[in-house]
């Protein structure tokens, strides 16, 4: 039988839990608004008249709808070609990064060789070096290899990342050695173990790495700007500079129109891989 004291404690617990949930939802809603407002502003600006862009107060709903900003923006430069270049580069960088990162991570996690720890620490140390420091020597190397103004210069320097190797290694460490030993006893070769056993088990971290890599490659501006000066090889971020030429005010509505369209592939990739991405986050939390 419930006593008055127990009843009061239960009521207090329910109230406390309710307040905690309300506070949690409030924080989530505020965070959602913080992230959604810039996207909404970008989308609405893309269909505004140029005079409305810097209107005070801000026109959250356009007073004059101009959907023709989209065809006009895409007619200003060969953006179809820029989309194609960005897609080719991003897909190539993603697949090469996934393959080499999984291979290197598996090697660091499950094989022993002289200097393994030292070499892995060297790989990790590159995470602390800003890309801007590597920019000039990397460009000199690419130039002497003849990779400027072609896809090789855009793809190969990003084909492997220290973060990808670290992520794959951490997940490979959780794979049971007994599973791999059983495959070896059954006569499976080392490449067969990697392709048939290890790689399928790495789907969650591979999906997470694919999303991160695609996003980074798709939005990369500095490296394509430096390594390519042929308009036919411009990626989308570099191609958008056509709207920000010197001695001329930027066409903000056109920039926002192209930016809005450029977010579609990123959203599609995330929606396609979100199942495995969430699994990777959950597994990381369980391992922690």
| Overall radius of gyration | 25 Å
Number of DSSP-assigned strands: 0
* Overall geometry: globular
CATH architecture tag of the largest domain: Orthogonal Bundle
Distance between the termini: 41 Å
Low-confidence regions: none
Tell me the number of helical segments per DSSP (H or I, 4 or more residues long): 13
How would you classify the helix and strand content by structural class?
A: mainly alpha
Helix content: over 70%
The average pLDDT is: 86
What is the N-to-C order of secondary-structure elements (H for helix, E for strand)? HHHHHHHHHHHHH
The profile of the biggest β sheet is: none
CATH superfamily of the largest domain: MetI-like
CATH topology group of the largest domain: MetI-like fold
Number of discrete domains: 2
Into which percentage range does the β-strand content fall?
A: under 5%
CATH uppermost class of the largest domain = Mainly Alpha
């Amino acid at each position: 039988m419930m006593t008055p004291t127990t009843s009061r404690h239960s009521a207090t617990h329910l109230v406390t839990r309710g307040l905690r949930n309300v506070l949690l939802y409030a924080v989530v809603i505020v965070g959602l608004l913080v992230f959604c407002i810039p996207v909404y502003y970008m989308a609405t600006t893309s269909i505004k008249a140029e005079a409305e862009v810097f209107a005070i107060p801000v026109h959250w709903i356009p007073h004059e709808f101009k959907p023709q900003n989209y065809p006009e923006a895409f007619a200003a430069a060969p953006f179809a070609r820029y989309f194609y270049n960005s897609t080719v580069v991003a897909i190539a960088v993603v697949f090469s990064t996934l393959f080499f990162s999984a291979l290197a991570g598996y090697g660091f996690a499950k094989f022993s060789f002289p200097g393994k720890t030292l070499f892995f620490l060297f790989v990790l140390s590159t995470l602390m070096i800003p890309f801007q420091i590597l920019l000039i020597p990397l460009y000199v190397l690419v130039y002497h290899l003849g990779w400027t103004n072609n896809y090789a210069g855009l793809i190969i320097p990003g084909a492997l990342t220290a973060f990808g190797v670290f992520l794959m290694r951490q997940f490979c460490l959780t794979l049971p050695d007994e599973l791999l030993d059983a495959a070896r006893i059954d006569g499976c070769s080392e490449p067969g173990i990697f392709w048939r056993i290890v790689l399928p088990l790495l789907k969650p971290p591979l999906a997470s790495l694919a999303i991160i890599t695609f996003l980074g490659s798709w939005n990369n501006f500095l490296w394509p700007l430096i390594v390519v000066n042929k308009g036919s090889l411009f990626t989308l971020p570099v191609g958008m500079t056509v709207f920000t030429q010197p001695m001329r005010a930027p066409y903000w509505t056109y920039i926002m129109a192209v930016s809005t369209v450029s977010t579609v592939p990123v959203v599609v990739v995330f929606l396609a891989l979100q199942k495995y991405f969430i699994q990777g986050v959950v597994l990381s939390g369980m391992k922690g």
